[in-house]
What we know:
By secondary structure, this protein is α+β, with helices and mostly antiparallel strands.
Amino acid sequence: MTEKEGGPGMRCLTPAKITALTLSILLLLGGIAAAVWAVVTFLMKTEDPRLYDVQINPADLRLSVFDRSDGRWKFVCSSSSDELVARISCEEMGFIRSLGYSVHPFSSVSGNTSEGFFCVDEKQLEFGKKIKEVLSACDCENGRILSVNCQDCGRRKLTVDRIVGGEDSSLGKWPWQVSLRYDGSHLCGGSIISNRWIVTAAHCFPERNRLLDRWQVFMGSIHMSSRGLVQSVQTVVYHSGYQPFIDPNVDDNSNDIAVIALSAPLTFSDYIQPVCLPALSQSLIDGKVCMVTGWGNIKYYGQPSDILQEASIPVISDSTCNSEDYYSNQITSSMFCAGFSEGGIDACQGDSGGPFVCEDSISKTSRWRLCGVVSWGTGCALPQKPGVYTKVNHFLPWISTAMRTYDQKPGVYSMG
């Protein structure tokens, strides 16, 4: 039977009970809101440590550094060494070059979110040292803070939707990829890191290939048969510790890295852009899936690809790659492996020196970083014989020193 309106089920909700129920609901909602706010606050507090400790604000280019002792971002107070601070900071973040700097009164800075300042110990400033190592909390008595303009990198200018087992790339997708050609023939790949410098592998420069006027750098196209942009080479610096150049009988491919200076600065475009280097002390993450690109052979005994190839492959832990089933302790601290245990996708001949790039957002904006250089491997795409790459973050001080030491010095040099 249907209960009549105003029956016993309704009479139990007295005004006092309605008030109590309302208060209970409000308290419950308040508790939920407090819990949500706590989660949001926790996430906001934990966001900063996930970023690199040195940042450039996109709005006004102010330089800020995270103080992990009290969990706050602090501006860097201006000093007489602002230019050097700018250069060191940009390089530390993987941006290679400082394009300039400026100084602003703290009160004029928009979007002020800093809760303090850092001052620079100018006597301790040097390349290769983290900027935090020369900073100390201060009151910034001059009231002026530093803004820094770093070279942009690791971002495509175009919207984009032979590696063995890879697929054709598209124009502008990997705008830092270059082809290194000797007497007009493709020998190695390389990566643009600034308007003058290319990173590649040392093994691309055996003694028979050290005549500079026979080298050319091809870029701005994914087709080997396309004209693209061709630049001559002014300087080659290869690592003096690359063992096969010292003793061909030594089975150690450590220090397989080189840098090349172009004869004239590049003009960046939709199809030619620099890639970022890793930030100082940034580590590779085992299992992270990254990209390898190149025009190398699409089979071990095959022909080079006419179209730039790309493939996604994961980083393999050193412990796995040094096991007996893989490379049996041949992987040193300056190398790493990437690929699949079953094989099938790998770099091959002709990909040497080319980029292994990983994407991250440690500088707030998503960027690609040159984490590896194609170095060596047993065969191509064989099971448990993945590609081996030079670990770029191991050589950041070497790259920096080579560029500063041999800037505007034509020739082929060996540097340890």
